[in-house]
Every structure is written in structure tokens, then in C-alpha cells.
Amino acid sequence: TMAEFKVEDGEKPVDERQEDKVERLALDDDEVNEEDIVKDLNEAIEYKNKGNTNFAAGLWSEALNDYTNAIAYCPLPPDESQNVSNKIEESEDKIVEITPEEEERLIKEEQSKKVNEELKNNLSIFYSNRAACYLKLQIWKEAVADSTVALKYKPDYQKALLRRAQAYENLGE
Q1: Distance from C-alpha of 11 to C-alpha of 26, rounded to nearest angstrom
Q2: What is this structure's pTM?
Q3: What average pLDDT score do residues 96-106 get?
Q4: Which residue(s) pair with 94 in the sheet?
Q5: How large is the angle between the packed helices 60-73 and 100-136, nearest 10 degrees?
């Protein structure tokens, strides 16, 4: 049985939040507001915490809904291939001077990398936690799918590996 996803008063349905996120991410990098990313990530973490509370109380469907909302609110990290920049080559016998603008760009790029790592880590947790709900609800294929997505974002995530193995075992694979 599939869990029903509830929308609380004043919230947009999950699919509309996903559309908003995709629309926002379609903007040029210069137009993406880091404040929006942080705000959305914090909202996603609030849903994850709510899901953790419901999961601990044995409310699997409610927790599943909360983790789904966390995933919907969490900004997607940009594709690594889109984040390739022109690197400054330095050699031991050559000192490279950079302009203040270039220095600012490099600092922003480094901050962006940190934010992207945080997004990947959180998305991995959200998907893995939702996989745990699917395991409790005995929805094995969805548990495999979510564990696999979690591992895409964080390949060495032990909980996601274990949850996927449990789901495969229950599928007889």
C-alpha cells in the first residue's frame, strides 16, 4: 500500500514545490540566490527532523511524507560537469598574480563547492531515511530506488548500502 502524501494548510503540493525548484535552478548561476538555497535547505532539514520524530514514534507513513517534503524542498546540487571552471595553472618557478575580481570568483567557487557538498550530504540522508520508511512499510522496490539515489549523492553511505541490501534480500534478489 502506498502512503498518501498530505499537504499542510498554506503549503504548496510537493509537485508544485518541485516545479518551483526546477524553475529556480534553470536560472543562470549568477541569478541563483544563495539565501534562497540556504532557506530551502533549512526548510528541508526541518521536515527531516519532523520525519525523524515520526519515524521514532512508529508513524512510518507520516515520516515518509516528511522525508518526501524534505526532498522536495532541498535544492539540487548542480551537475559536476557544469561546475568546471578555468583553473589557474601555477608552476614552481612562476608566480601567478590574480586580479581582485578573479580572487573573488575563486572564493565564491570554493564556497559553492562547500554548499554543493552539504546539499549532496543532506539529499543522501533524506533519500536513505525515506528508504527506511519504505522498508518498514514493506515497499521493497521503492526502498531499493531511494537507497540507490542516496548512494548517488554519497557513494560510501553505509546506512543506504545496508537499506538497499535489506530491500534486495526481501525481493529475493
Answers
A1: 22
A2: 0.73
A3: 84
A4: 91
A5: 160
